[in-house]
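so my prof wants the structure for this chain in the tokens format not the other one, which i didnt know existed until like an hour ago. anyway here's the sequence
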Amino acid sequence: MWWSTSRPASTPGRSNWPGVRRSCAYSALARYTRGRTVVGYCGFTGLYQNTLQLLGRRQVIHVERPFSMPLELEIEVSVRDEGGVRVVRVAPADSMWIFLGQVLGAVPTGSREFDEPLLADGWILGRLLRDRGEAWSGVS
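here's what i got, hopefully its the right format
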């Protein structure tokens, strides 16, 4: 939802290792139109990692712990473009609560602003689940 409401061209993901019954890590790649890509990794296989990179033709955005930042901590977003590198600091907040408030607040107004991105997220989730089923077919 961050970059586009269009469907990604691909969403490969992998979270299985031979002999491991539970997933300890995952990575994802979603390629979008106009040269945009989202790359993410989360894992507990060593030092905890949770990163997301948004890659465009003229800009790269890097976020540490985008989905698990403790509510009391400030988030640092690294932005690299033709002008150099800068860090954008985001004040501590419950981002999911704010987002859900915006989505639910749009319902009584009849706003359709979240329809397309939420449906795109649903399409991506369906694609990931289908792909995961194919990747996990040999693992019990």
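also thought this was worth mentioning. Residues 115-135 form the longest helix (21 residues).
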